[in-house]
Amino acid sequence: MRTSNPIFSRWGAARDPESVHAQAARPVGAAVGGRPVDDYLANPYAPGSDTSSGSTRNAITMDDVVVRTATTLGTVALTAVLSWLLLPVDEANLGRSYGLAVGAALIAFVLSMIQAFRRTPSPALILGYAAFEGVFLGVLSSTVSTYLSPGVVVQAVLGTFAVSAAVLLAYRMRWIRVDRRFAGFVASAATGFLLLLVADLIFSAFGAGSGLGFHSGGLGILFGVIGIVLGAAFLALDFKQVEDAVAYGAPREEAWLAAFGLVTTLVWIYLEVLRVLTILNSDNYN
């Protein structure tokens, strides 16, 4: 069972099918390299499954994941700050800034899809995605802070770190059991959540005002909280996938995929936290 994160779901796709099938045939609980195999993930990184000229490829380490995640997240933060400073959202420049933000979001989406369907990670694609995502987040955050809720961006950033730290603690303490059932539930819940988002956009586009009502009031807060919980669940799945990749000896270059997936999830959490805090701080909420 792969994680629901669309980036991590492709981990191991380029592995030797014979080794993957052999591993999948092992009984649940059988040991691999001293580590039991659980029912969450059949090991595509079993020792000896990927060799070249008699030598094993360099294996991923947790340090590799941390460094590449920090690099990718730092790129998002840097471009977000620069876009906030260089693309003002005052009345004279609002249209231009919005246009650049929408264009950046579309480019980021295209780059993410290209990487998602590649068999190997591309640092250039991943960092390019991070840069354009940062432009979009910078303009969006500046707009929200200027016109809707001053000071909310700092609160949203702190909230994102708080949620991430809580999930990491819960995962490390094994308060969260990330198994096949958990992954299936998260995938189903996320599908429903995204379908509601699409329906909300359709209603808004065809003149239904505020769509399904997810942008204000109690319903908006509830929808945002559900989004935060889903983001936290994705983060737990990401942590599980990274842990398994390190334990099973995934190739080192796939640390870039880990960074890609983790940053994508953190952006999701930030946007949902920003939504909830904006509604709470807005004069429209009573």
Describe the structure.
- With 286 residues, the chain is mostly helical.
- A two-stranded antiparallel ribbon has the order 1-2. It has a two-stranded antiparallel sheet with strand order 3-4.
- Helix 2 crosses helix 8, helix 5 crosses helix 7 and helix 7 packs antiparallel against helix 8.
What is the helix/strand order?
HEEEEHHHHHHH
Largest sheet: 2 strands, antiparallel
Q: How would you sum up the global shape?
A: globular
Structural class: mainly alpha
- What distance lies between the first and last C-alpha atoms, to the nearest angstrom? 44 Å
Percent of residues in beta strands: under 5%
- Number of DSSP helices? 8
| Helix fraction by DSSP (H/I, runs of at least 4) | 55-70%
What is the arithmetic mean of pLDDT?
Answer: 78
In spatial order, strands of the major sheet run 1-2
Beta-strand segment tally: 4
Weakly predicted, low-confidence segments: 6-41, 46-56
Computed over alpha carbons, the radius of gyration is 21 Å
Short note summarizing the structure:
The protein is mainly alpha-helical.
Key attributes of the depicted protein:
single chain, 286 residues, mainly alpha, two-stranded antiparallel sheet, 8 helices, globular
Write the layout of secondary structure elements.
Layout: H1 17-24, E1 31-32, E2 35-36, E3 51-52, E4 55-56, H2 62-86, H3 94-116, H4 123-148, H5 152-172, H6 180-205, H7 217-248, H8 255-281
Antiparallel strand pairs: 1-2, 3-4
